[in-house]
């Protein structure tokens, strides 16, 4: 709720205006990009059941569209939704317009240009290959500039406020800005070799730790804390009740931002990450239950005495389900960080269900709840149709259920089949494809669920559009308040949090940053500085020039979205794939490619497992080698010429990153690549396949045949 400044009749009131145009702009952007992102999501959901929907062209394959979907939903739909709520609520709780219209417009137009750049580059295969951080370095720089501009705008608005203390919603906005800025900058340190290509500065284990330190906390500080701030403002407004507990909001805020930053390693349990880092991530993940549920309780308890309104008010319906989904997801997350649970769920569709309960329920429903509350106030008209809004609520809820339940079931099915042995001690399902074909009905149901949610989205869009068309935007909303200087009169019994933090926005910003830096430093620094964290293996050598080119093709095609490269130390995995993965095997991997989902089998030990012809035929038509496969075809790899001209620059960049290529190797790299390619072509010819050495498929085969062959089989 908006804090009430103590004024007297002798205090001069200042008149100012809230800018609703920027709020409207972000709302429209959120809706438009949300539709695009969810259309792509429905398409890729059905691609897993019907591979023909990949259309046999490079720009529409699952591997390239999946990053487009995640970026569109997270950064375009949710990101614009956050900015929409921020630019409406922050000025009103601070009783002052945003500090700078210029910075607001830089935020808006810069963010939309970034989204458009992502929508162009990702289908083209221009990617860093790091989940949720796939955008290449020029776009990364733009993100940092726009984000810092928005942070500066918020901080200066806090400085210029007309209230003595700062309301809880703004605390969460502030923490989101400072933490995402830190995460983005650290994770995006990369070495460019051209305008559209770069290599991660980190390698292997370190890259994996930095990536999931970023990846987990991108969920925390982009999808969670900003929307908690929105909840603290819009839920009390919609319920016409004050927030349940100010003191609980303090505990919720500080414990959440301090603990969340440590939890990233739980994405890497049973991998080659050092055990101490895995354990640290588990401990702090379990601790997160308390502050996460503290926020949920603060939201739901705000409705005490107002539950009768929930039956009639569609805004509150969306909010209640949204906050409940937040509670479910933030209970399940810590449970998934327990090693015994993670051993079952990781790499399965269980994780997909978990993520979408949060994304669709928490972010999706909260966004529309806010829009349904906002649009009548922005346009001075009641909502066009309560019936359509209620239809949206119910079909959206049904969509979430149809999406999540089959994915949970699919996850259990996958894990059970992967781990099952016969009485004689052999894998019951040694062919990985046997587990995949069992999942197709679940994927169809998931696609139906996504379609239902999208139908609700479209109905909601129509409802909001008709509301807007029936009224006129109140572009500038006039308000009056006394200046902070004229009303400054802190009470004698002022609460400590108000005195220490809420009076001092710049200090508040710095301490919030310190709170999130601590966990990151303690986790990351030892992994980089203590050599025993990544023991080297003498037999592990740098990739050849052709293998390096093939690896870049593998990254470009998004193969990591369906395949892992991490054999965990489980009997079921060593029986299926071979020797478990060692930290020292990845020291030259920029970026790492451990993956987070196994729609297809793990590939870390695939090298020398099949002849070159198998890989050639498999990429041309996966079903020719694996009947029933849901993998898309890659015919362009057999036709497109391999550009070896970039090889010297790539070798030079790798040497800069610490890969021990011999001096002068750049000069002979192209010749070496051509020689290795000729050997693969000769191998293919023996199996009756006529291929040319200058095609991309040859480089990809070279890379695949190298995987996992650097260590002796135990």
From TrEMBL:
EC code(s) of this entry? 7.1.1.9
The cofactor binding remark recorded in the entry reads: Binds 2 heme groups per subunit, denoted as high- and low-spin.
Pathway involvement of the protein, from the record? Energy metabolism; oxidative phosphorylation
Q: Which UniProt keyword terms apply here?
A: Cell membrane, Copper, Electron transport, Heme, Iron, Membrane, Metal-binding, Respiratory chain, Translocase, Transmembrane, Transmembrane helix, Transport
- For the ligand (heme b 1; low-spin), the binding residues are 69, 356
Q: Name one GO biological process term.
A: electron transport coupled proton transport
Every copy of the Cytochrome c domain together lies at 545-708
Q: Which GO terms describe its molecular function?
A: cytochrome-c oxidase activity; heme binding; metal ion binding
Every copy of the Cytochrome oxidase subunit I profile domain together lies at 26-485
Enumerate the SUPFAM superfamilies for this protein. Cytochrome c, Cytochrome c oxidase subunit I-like
Instruction: Return the similarity comment.
Output: Belongs to the heme-copper respiratory oxidase family.
* Record protein name field: cytochrome-c oxidase
The record lists the organism as: Runella defluvii
